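Deliverable D4.2, example record:
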Amino acid sequence: MSARLRARIKPALEMMEAIPGVVVGFIAGLILAPWVERHLASALVLIIWLPLSAGLAGLLWQLAKTRLRRRLPLSCAGLWLVPWLALMVAIALWLAPWIEQLWLGGDLRQLLDQRFGMDYATRNALIVGLAMGFAVIPSIYSLAEDALVDVPSSLIEGAQALGASRWQALWKVALVAAGPGIFSAVMIGAGRAVGETMIVLMASGNTALFSASPFEGMRSMAAAIAIELPEASPGGLTYHLLILAALVLFLFTFLVNTLAEVVRQRLRRRYRQMGHVMTSGAANTASRHARFHWLNDAWPWLCAASVALSL
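Output generated by the structure prediction step:
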């Protein structure tokens, strides 16, 4: 990604990260949940089809001609990928009713109920997952992108100089060097997702019974504390259970953030040592070159003197 495009995309994602969880939960519970209930097959087709269409775009890019690649530079892939994904969304929404009619018996919700025994609730774990992804992915992307940008360009250039392709340099050099930073970004995003309250509270249906089905409601520990703590009598069993749930939630979030910070510090030490080794190596090479630099200037005169002596 070019620096100009990065300067535009990253602030937009940081603005998405700054959206309050109440707003995201409101949109998910009152707008997204009824639409998914009416168009369940279309939603599932979109969830499956969009990642496949992104991979298809990469495959078509590899098979494209050189002239087309020059017109569509890879550094601006985020711009020309948007109309491609919009076209794929339109195709998926057009094909979803046909797929539901031909392969799913005309009603996906009835098929899930009769064959698999899954009830569909309007606000369920699927809605929570979509809303949580909208809230968490920008922060993960921002931190992971910083980790990739901080990888020394000399590593990638050295890999390409040794014969590696651009994809091999990215996969085996850049991602390996930025792996701890990407891992810490994922862990921080997981910590935020576990501690999120309002999105789960407004989009999950607050079902006290937990089920493995993604189409039924749920209730997280944070949402249970927010709902039941005002009604719990101090000193009672429910009060102590809520205190225990808060302690477990705090310990899990603390461990996740601590692990992410430890990995980040290890990454910084690795880069610092790498930079020190590269700097010292360059300094030693420069000193050796400077030590024998006088030979380059004196070489013509030495040759002339040797010729004169031989004559």
